[in-house]
Amino acid sequence: MEWIPVLAYLLVVGAFTALGAPLAAALFDHLPRRGAAFALPTAMVPFAIAVFWIGQLTFGLHTLLLGIAAVLALTAAAWRLDARPDWRAVGVAYGVFAVGFLFMLSFRAANPAITPQGGEQFLHFALVNTLERANSLPPEDMWFAGRPLKYYYGTQMQVASLSMLTGTALRYGFNLGIATFYGMLFVVAYGVGGAVVSRRGGSFRIGGAFGAFFVALGGASTTAIRLLTPYLPEFLAGPVEQAAFGFVARRFEGGDLAATVTNLSDPFDWGWWYTRYVVPGTIQEVPLYSFVKADLHGHTFANPYVLFAGALALAYYVTPPEEQKRRLALVFGGLGAVAGLFGFMNTWSLPTAAGMAMLAVGAADAHPSTLLPDAWGERLRPETAPEDRKEWLGHELWRVVLAAVVGVVVLLIGVVVASPFLVFGHVPSNEGIGLLPPRSPLPAFLVMYGGLLTAFGVYLTVQGREAVEELPGEWLGAAGVLLVGALGFAALVENAAVLVLLGTFILAGWLLVRSGRAGFAMVLLVAGAGLLLALELAHAKLPLIANPRWNTSLKVAVQAWTLGAAGAGAASALLLREHGGRLKEIATARMAPSGGEDGSTPENVAVLSSALVVLLVVAVLLVSATFPVMMFAAEVGGPVEGGHYDPSLDGWEAVEGFHANEYDALRWLKERPGKPTIVEAPGDSYGWSNPASTFSGLPTIVGWDHEAEYRSQQAYERRVGYVETVYTGDWDRAAVILDFYDVRYVYVGPNEREAYDGIRSFEREPFSVAFEGGAVTIYEVDQSTLPYEGDGDS
User: Fold this and answer.
1) How far apart are the C-alpha atoms of 717 and 697, rounded to whole Å?
2) Across-strand partners of 767?
């Protein structure tokens, strides 16, 4: 195990945490512990934005130091405003980060290899390698030489930055970056859960533990349901099998449902890979799945910042109305900055930051108009609080409209912050937004989200019981009519039940928040449900992806889990505190020498209702815990038990183990200075294709067929033809291509020999052997001796 890089990362993260603590104290002054758990993302957000902007001119270690200087300037300003952190709490938060960091490190150490099978590790490792070589941003596309990268690269930029700051080789920094961002998610979830529960009279530590568990460890209900399926009574087994296993059977087993059930319900042959294939036509993950999968995907690494956006929304929610400047800083400075980071890190999260701004401003006691100067705000603000319920409803709708305007402004701020990427042509091609995609069938949806929705439903019922009792008859009648209409809609329209269920939960939850009967845990639950509802209503239209919801579900559902699970964790802690405490009090009273209560009907009802709440919450906990237990047993426990757990963080492990005949050649290329262009055979995604550019970060004429999505099918195929010409075609034409792309090295390895029959001899004047070893020969091109210098064709 490479412990020196681990210690280096812990030291650098500790420095960022200390650097961000005063700034966090300024932003989160009204939260318990002054936002100590949010110190790390509070520093990382401005650091990443500063590096991104300075990097448009120049990129390197000096850029990273300037980024740190920018954070230091903000911290100094916060210190001058008398923002003093709770340093003990900061130390505790750093310890929580370390727990999450080391937990994920145990996964990566068990299987550190960077491989192309089943994921996009090759794409992301190539990106961090090319970023390390970059002189400015965006870097040259390593799989489309001569053109700037056309992919959001904020995640890889941060991973490369940490590697460069610590002096760690990226073969280790790749895996350490995964553990670092998981640790950040872990500590932010701890901070959000702790703050929400503490503000409602509970224990910060217990709330934090529930938050970290539900968000970063907890899994969907899928694993528990699949493992329990063989033990279900026959009348239940059939519908459950179809809901829990049907999509996997159709996609991977040729429709053989019985075989799929047998394979995926066996705990001794369980695999986590198939747990995201539940709702037909989608892939939906939870954060632990995404991190263990070990891509540097933006939708994975953005989740700590998604929840940080939730923390900023919470800070706004609790800030008194009279502190206008702090509220402005939180919503437009804090959430605006996070939206900007999402713009070049994971564009799919940009609307989420705007949505959290809208929810915070709409839910807070302070009227949205108070964000404006008094002269403007008074025109938009009702003069008095409405007493009539009809008037109250109109005022609430107006509040939502103004909050939506604030969300749009935050969205625009994000676009401006990320404008070098979003505005100036570096966004992958797309065809806009599509509406009303195929909807999710309710049974499969409940297999995935049953636990989360149970926590939401129980909290909604408990918090809303008194509100229902207080409603006048006409409101109850109207609610009944709406409910009957919704149920009729769900019954008549195919797969509309999920829409009705989520819509009902969202509306009821929001009304409870605005009535003061539910706090910020409900806001987070509404946010998560809102993102899941969005998947039922809209999708991104992407070229070359026939399934309309495939990519959208992958990128959005994990954000829904992150926010919704944070709310479910806090809600579960609060429910156990209240109803577990009530059961304890009643039991203590009955066992007292005086005899306690008389066992009256009201008391018995209270005991039964509290016992039911506790039972449901415990059931949700157990269901959520099944996934991380099974995953840890499979990925870490198995190798330990088998005696072959040999922990390492070396991402090149697979090359040494399975492609040793190319290992020395790839290392030689990695050591080349600058950014010389190479040529190698392109290949299909998810295979051992383009290893030379992937492991070196050097640009090649064309790489994985992902580029057809980013550029166009025509542009991709044209370059594929150019590469074939270099290896097998007319020499004069090949010389033009080598000259136009300024190719320095021609890589001839196993892929090239397999792809091109009759590969040319490179024993001619422009070529010399620069490296030869294993199964690879690398030729160096002398551009000055090429027979032709032409205009070429990009």
Assistant:
1) 22
2) 781
Domain hosting residue 724, numbered range: 660-785
- Looking at the domain assignment, is residue 731 inside a domain? yes
CB of 752 closer than 8 Å to CB of 759: yes
Return the SS3 of 780: strand
Residues, the chain: 794
Q: How many domains does the chain have?
A: 1
Could you count the other beta carbons within 10 Å of the beta carbon of residue 598?
Answer: 7
Residue 689 belongs to a domain: yes
451 falls within a domain: no
- Ranges under pLDDT 70 in the chain: 383-390, 429, 471-476, 478, 594-600, 602, 788-794
Give the pairing type, strands 743-748 and 776-781: antiparallel
The string of pLDDT tens digits covering residues 34-62 is 999 999 999 999 999 999 999 999 999 99
Q: How many helices (H) and strands (E) does the chain have?
A: 35, 6
Which token pair is 177?
């970056």
- Asked if residues 182 and 188 have their Cβ atoms less than 8 Å apart, the reply is no
Phi, psi of 759 (to 5 degrees): -60, 140
Q: What is the pLDDT of residue 794?
A: 43
Q: Which neighbouring-strand residues pair with 773?
A: 776
- Between CA 691 and CA 687 the distance in angstroms is 10
726: domain CATH number?
A: 3.40.50
Q: Which residue has the tokens 């999505």?
A: 709
Beta bridge partners of 780: 745, 768
Longest dimension (CA), the chain: 106
The reply to whether 737 falls in a domain is yes
Q: What is the pTM of this model?
A: 0.96
